[in-house]
Amino acid sequence: MIEGIIPILSLLVLFFLVLTVVVWIGNSIRLYISRSLSLRQSNTASVESPFEKKATTKEHRTCPFCKEEIKSYAVKCKHCNSFLNTKSRNAMASMIAKICPYCQFSIKQDSEAVQCQGCEMPHHKECWEDNDGCTTFGCNETTFKVPAENRL
Q1: pLDDT band at 56 (very low <50, low <70, confident <90, very high)
Q2: What is the pLDDT of residue 76?
Q3: Which of 40, 45, 74, 114 has fewest C-beta within 10 Å?
Q4: Is 121 exposed, middle or buried (0-12, 13-18, 19+ CB in 10 A)?
Q5: CA–CA distances in Å: residue 80 to residues 14, 42, 65
Q6: Same structural domain, 143 and 104
Q7: Distance between CA atoms of residues 96 and 111, nearest Å
Q8: Phi and psi dihedrals of 116, rounded to 5?
Q9: 133 lies in which domain range?
Q10: 3 CB-contact burial (10 Å; exposed 0-12 / middle 13-18 / buried 19+)
């Protein structure tokens, strides 16, 4: 009697296993198609993000560095990459005479310097590019800020 039930149970387990694989493949195809359709729609029609910050008063203003039109709430100009607040503009002044953690030489006025986006440690731009990111121990940041004085 048990010998007759074992093949039936194994066939039942095999059936559910095949059914699971077929459903998984179907869901993968459906997800791929829906993502490709949503990408096409986003390329053709501009969809506003609900997280995008809206200007409450004036929509645009002029960048004081390149004189291009920018959003009124912008912190950094998208045309010349200049930081628009005084704290960021004074960043280069605070970086002068500090020591680059990569080469251990001081950052001079005429040298091209960048500042880590994560830990705000100043580096020579060449040292940053040589290391592919921040050289401070424990900081894995790969993006940097360029002080406004470096871009003028």
Answers
A1: very low
A2: 74
A3: 45
A4: buried
A5: 63, 27, 8
A6: yes
A7: 9
A8: -60, 135
A9: 95-151
A10: exposed
Q: Which amino acid is at 100?
A: C
Q: What is the 3-state secondary structure (H, E, C) of the chain?
A: CHHHHHHHHHHHHHHHHHHHHHHHHHHHHHHHHHHHHHHHHHHHCCCCCCCCCCCCCCCEEECCCCCCEEECCCCECCCCCCECCHHHHCHHHHHCCCECCCCCCECCCCCCEEEECCCCCEEEHHHHHHHCCCCCCCCCCCCEECCHHHHC
Question: Would you say residue 114 lies in a domain?
Answer: yes
**How far is C-alpha 27 from the chain's CA centre?**
29
Residue 112 in any domain: the answer is yes
pLDDT tens digits for 78-110? Answer: 888 776 765 555 555 566 667 888 888 888 777
**Cα distance between residue 91 and residue 145, in whole Å:** 9
Q: Are residues 125 and 144 in the same domain?
A: yes
Euclidean distance between CA atoms 30 and 23, whole angstroms: 10
